[in-house]
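Subject: complex prediction, re-run

Hi both,

The earlier run crashed halfway through, so I resubmitted it with identical inputs.
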Amino acid sequence: MLRILRQIFRTGIVTEPLPPEEEAKIELVGARLEESVKRVFAGSLTIRQVDAGSCNACELEIHALNNSIYNCERFGITFTASPRFADMLLVTGPVSVNMAIALKRTYDAMPPPKLVVAVGDCGYNGGIFGKSYASLGGVANVIPVDAYIHGCPPSPSVLLSGILEAVGARRLSIGK
Amino acid sequence: MTDTLHRALVADLRESNIIELPQGGATALRVPLPYFVRSAEVMKTAGARLAAEWGVDETPFGNGFAVWAAYNLGTEYLLVTAALDAAKPAFGTLTGQYLAAFRFERQIMSLMGLTVKGHPDPRPWIKHEDWPQDAYPLRKTCDASAPMPRVEGTYQWIPAVGEGVFEIPVGPVHAGIIEPGHFRFQAVGEKILNLEARLGYVHKGIEKRFESLSWQDAAKLAGRVSGDTTVAHALAYAMAVESAAGCAVPPRAQWLRGLLLERERMANHLADLAALCNDVAFAFGYYQFWNLRETMLRMNKTLFGHRLLMDAIVPGGVSVDLAEGAKEDIALEIHGVIAEFKRLMEIYDDNASLKDRLYGSGVFPQSAAFDLGVVGIAARASGQGLDARLQNPFPPYDTVVPKMHVLHSGDAHSRGWVRVEEVRDGARLIAEILAGMPTGATSAPLTAPAAGSAGFSAVEGWRGEILCWVQAGPDGGINRCMVRDPSAVNWLALEQSIKQDMVPDFPLVNKSFNNSYSGNDL
Ligand code: SF4
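This time it finished cleanly. Structure:
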């Protein structure tokens, strides 16, 4: 136990001990996200992530949002297992033929406002896998998409920016 | 390379029955179809492992189909093939000799439409029940770009009956940020009687896609077979192509490849140790190990332009190089990571709750590991001395020799501990690779493989052995690219290791294997 405590003190708070430009990016994202999340989702944004056919690298970077460096929870962002609690659906990969039904069902199970963010070049247009007998291409071919986060895979800081953009856009349309 | 298997086959089938085919990276022998099963018997007797089995549509050559099998014993990889009829392609099952053939052949039946006589379980695999029955995407007659119609169909699960037996269906969408697949547990109370995995959800037609890409572009696709293993998959593909084309890769490129491969291994092992801690609710370990992984990914980005090292490996060499001062940066980084790792391991190794969950969970017996022909971490944790870096010691591994850590208890703890040892050894390998780094060019021009030529390679990715086989068509393009991710064999191990456990231990045991869905489903 003592060793654990010692290591915790030695580590300190590692959230964003980043090179300056990375730090700025995340901070900026964070502050704006916090504000819009507060307004639109009463201080918490709950995300259901679905891999609809990705190569799994997008998952690795999304996973990193939870680590102590990107620490997405400080912005009120949490990942949920159940689509019933989800404000946002974060979808990776080209949508494979074999996942299309499961993706559609997950989307249908969400309560409104059903914000959908498609992640990665694959989520945008199928990426290197394209459209084929096995791949339906981008996420928008199966469910409506509110925002795209480009990259192969997008880095954790780019992911945070993209999530912000999506939330901001939604706020505008709700405000109308 | 030894030739024990080659000699055993020649001795048994006689020289006149065997034709040696032009093939880079391994010896390839064509045998008459009636001898295909016999050759498996000979291989089994000689102690070989069935590493892969696949079908090829050779109609562009004016032939019919072909079935291929890759065997391995020590440093020898031997490929055995037989030609099949164009109209009614069929061959006898190898499941009588090798359990590993079970899924390979289901896949051959499902995607290439070859008949496997005597196969005990002809249910489709990867191909889901709502595909048209006659959809055989790997056949040349199938237009891969056309959308596939959906049909009605059901999947037959293996039933369990009896008093108090119930089923728990899980997936394809799982609770966390992970890949999709379906698991069907049959249980009594908390105890698991049987687990049947059903995969294929992330099948995106990768093997077929290869056939429409140039040799260069296909390297990018290979790097996305399983994104967490981008270096090893791109390397396996590049080496297969280079061996088909007879392309000599400059020494510096080979050593840089080794460096990238070992960095990928360390970063993934650190993530897996973090995930193991997470699954036993040891949040401290999760965050700490993940910090170390993040350190490595950032260095990757700084030095090589990509956190996961995608597209760093190209046919003919590498697309990256060490800039001024990079060696020192890496040395410092690894020194820091290992110092932290050492402190964390004292805690990890001394933590009662970790031990309680990891020791004795998900035991995968040594005999099953041998019979199923599993590879990589899962094999080494269950007493199997397999490591493709030693079986196929391309530079730098001919001089910088990895230490193989073989454990015997086959539980979640051993699978974790193999990773621990490999993180430590990875630091040594990286230091030695940097110290011995040759000077010179980082890539050689790739001449396209000649029509009809083929190439094979075996690379030890962080999960285990990756195999790749490429064949150039009559037009000089890719006629077939077979990829065998370690997960294609190791998923069977998960089913076998969970039988004595409770349902709540499944996530932990699953994580201790951490098989790839994408690499399996292709
Ligand atoms: S965008 Fe790139 S990293 Fe993400 S799933 Fe597609 S290939 Fe993989």
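Chain B has a mean pLDDT of 92.

- K.
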